[in-house]
Amino acid sequence: MTTPQTGIVHMWHQELGKGDPMVLLHPAGVDSRAFTPNFDGLSQQFHLYAPDRRGHGRTPDVEGPISFELMAQDTIVFLETVVGGPAFLAGYSDGAVVALLVALRRPDLVRRLVFAAGVFHRDGWADGVLDHDETPPDFMRDTYAEVSPDGAGHYGTVVAKIAAEHKHEPSLTPADLRQITSRTLILVGDDDEVRLEHALELYRSLPDAELAIVPGTSHGVLAEKPDLCNLLITDFLGKDPVPTFAPIRRKSLS
Fold this sequence. Notes:
Blueprint: E1 13-16, E2 20-25, H1 36-43, E3 46-51, H2 68-83, E4 87-92, H3 94-105, E5 110-116, H4 138-147, H5 155-166, H6 174-177, E6 184-189, H7 196-205, E7 209-214, H8 221-224, H9 226-238
Parallel strand pairs: 2-3, 2-4, 4-5, 5-6, 6-7
Antiparallel strand pairs: 1-3
Helix pairs in contact: 1-9, 2-3
């Protein structure tokens, strides 16, 4: 369902746990079930909101493209109308891009930001990652068919829209990143599809960022080591920064 004139999509979502609100934004081509390995750990400390973005999961597709900007606007409305105000925002892969744009457009709605296995510019993906000539894995098609209100036959349309989006987006610059005021945790696997050099550039460009490289993981970092990732995330969201003994980048804050 869309809002007349604005084109905003009302996203299906599930809620778990109690505590401060935390919104989870899933990767492209899947849905909020991607966070299943993390739900139990995170819901012990936070009230989780896990929406399915437009054209994903239980949220129907609409006419026109699927773009990061449109999904960021959907998320802004979700925060305002469903959550009812600011929340912790955690995005994974393409969901991280959406979360970053929300933090850029509406910093008042983002208490802290978790940016997991994502890029701020499409050049941040490793070579071959955006090769959309490859057929998506069967499990992605199957999980789409399980819940999509558009039916299994619409999956190819959604894949084509995502591929079109990835040809040009995201395209944020270090100058854009320097405008983001939200305290941010950048979390990436040590063998991720995101180039580590790109994650480091993101870390150095954001004014208030922390960097966690999870050993022995790939682009499936949150599912491969959920307990460790949950610990990193809950520590970051639930505690203030600690004073450090020998700061370099944050020396002016010590």
